[in-house]
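Lab intake sheet, docking and co-folding queue.

SAMPLE TYPE: protein with bound small molecule
LIGAND NAME: magnesium ion
LIGAND FORMAT: SMILES
REQUESTED OUTPUT: full 3D complex as structure tokens
PRIORITY: normal
SUBMITTED BY: R.K., bench team

The fields below were copied directly from the construct record.
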Amino acid sequence: MTGCTVWLTGLPSSGKSTIASTLAKRLTKEGRRVDVLDGDVLRRTLTTDLGYTRADRDENVRRIGIVAMMLARHDVIVLVPVIAPYSGSRDKIRALHEEHGIPFVEVYVATPLAVCAQRDVKGLYAEQRAGRMKGLTGVDDPYEPPPQPDLTVYTQAETVTASVDSVHQVLRRKLLV
Ligand SMILES: Nc1ncnc2c1ncn2[C@@H]1O[C@H](COP(=O)(O)OP(=O)(O)O)[C@@H](O)[C@H]1O
Ligand SMILES: [Mg+2]
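RESULT FIELD (auto-filled):
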């Protein structure tokens, strides 16, 4: 079995972390080696020096992409729930994977902004509305949706299990699981 990187991009509260952790459990049960590189966790460990400027966001994605590729080339399925707001930075990570012959799967968690703001898992949308924070992706900072993702999931209209199933199906279709 070969490894791969599955990048879950989408707005805050779109469902990236939930899908990644649920899928990780399932793949582990199926006997695969899995790692989850969660943006929120890595910002407290790998990329503590970075902030939220465009340059820092790109650098955050670049580093996480390199780690993902290194794990994936040792047969790990690497799930990466990281916003990665800029299309160009995601394309660079795809190119890096292609250079090394490692499959890269881009999943767009396309939950509408209004639904994300309603969920507001971390209270960021409320903070922004109250004027206590600036630069929230999708609100007052850019989010560039992927023009050609391998899969788009619509979490506002389905259960977590259904979203996880559709990612699993794509991996099966690509013969990665
Ligand atoms: N189909 C679905 N897929 C993923 N999350 C969903 C889905 N439906 C509802 N949710 C809920 O949406 C929230 C998503 O939060 P989270 O995964 O932390 O988002 P993100 O990591 O993108 O910021 C969770 O409370 C989750 O239970
Ligand atoms: Mg998350």
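REVIEWER NOTE: The pocket of adenosine-5'-diphosphate (ligand 1) is lined by residues 10, 12-19, 81, 119, 121, 155, 158-160, 163 (CB under 6 Å).
SIGN-OFF: pending second check by T.M.
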